[in-house]
Structure prediction request, 231 residues.
Amino acid sequence: MIVATAVCPHPPLLMRELSGGQDVAAELRTECESALEALAARSPDVLVVVGGHDSSGRRTERLVPVRGYGGTGERVPPERTLPLSLGVARRLLDSAGYRGRVEMATVAWDASAAEAEALGRRVADRAERVALLVMGDGSARRGTRAPGHLDERAFGFDEEVRRCLSEGDRAGLLRLDPVLAADLMVAGRAAFQVMAHALAATGDPVGPEVLYADDPFGVMYFVAVWPCGSF
Prediction:
């Protein structure tokens, strides 16, 4: 059973060694750590991380891909590193001091509704107390200097995601259009919908809260916490 869920983004800058002397991601990182503390406070037996990637699948613990994003350290082949979404999650869990059992999985950026539902149900059907951490960004087209340049449709799309997260609206997340999400370079659409499906049998979250919603680099980042029931 799922006892709580949280949403965090996965920009490489959340890895402290990539964020520069002024630590431009300090506020975002702090809110992510607060979300992880909220998950830990529910005393889960296992924390399941779901993040986007080119393909879906279970992921074993591997190295965080710092070198691939401009950091220093040992050069290792891609097959020995975690995908970015899970690598950022691993680093956040370490910085928050989380020492519990962690399992990781990816969901393809273009996953179908059926695929997202299947993964969500696999997470939800576990007998253990599960905390679910979902790693996903909003649109990367929120400004002329954004990775995907400006697309005015991004603002309405991201506002709908923010509303869903703030209100605990699972059905709203399931209505997100995958074609529009792909046009807007939304890295979290499939992961958000996995979360919505995972909570289908749990009921609406109690006291959903958005801790952060902003686009400091032209990409929309959300941090949210959804406690579940009275578990």
In short: The chain has a mean pLDDT of 90. The helical segments are 26-40, 84-95, 113-124, 153-167, 170-174, 178-183, 189-198.
